[in-house]
Amino acid sequence: MHADALTRPGQLWSAGEVLSRPGPVPGVAGAYGWHFEEAPHPDLPSGRLLYVGIAPRHMATRTSTQNLRKRVRYHFRGNAYGSTLRLTLGCLLGLELRRVGSGKRMTFTKAGETVLSGWMAEHARVCWLEHPEPWTVEAELISSLDLPLNLDQNRHNSFHPRLTEMRSQARQRARELPVTS
């Protein structure tokens, strides 16, 4: 079963390992799972899988150019605008979301993203499962596992309403603040 590869992986990888060159993450399609040694919120369990994602995303007209290596690395060092996982973690950790650039993008600004990257380097670990069409297993994983950090396709999770509200409040506060660089 696909879930076992993510819930009970043979190895979990740290930011340092994933970001090293050439690094262990393959440049192929698949699903990835995020485990947290320390939970990002007191109401969440630690030491287990809390989020899954896929790369590439399958869209109606095309498939994205992402792969496991690009996507996992981005989650570790990108920003909240390009990573729903980073957006979720930052909101749970109480970082201030801000509108940046033209005002349409929202991130935790350079300082906040640096704090988030440091927190992830210390507490987040990732594993993956190679799969040629990961979108075919995503719904199965989300419906069969307790993944409190996933929002899409996950309304059945008891943490969903709380996380949705926290993210909504963070976005609303960001809209009320001036745009920053």
Automatic annotation (TrEMBL):
Pfam families: GIY_YIG_2
Record-annotated GIY-YIG catalytic domain positions: 48-168
Stated name of the protein: GIY-YIG catalytic domain-containing protein
Species name: Streptomyces spirodelae
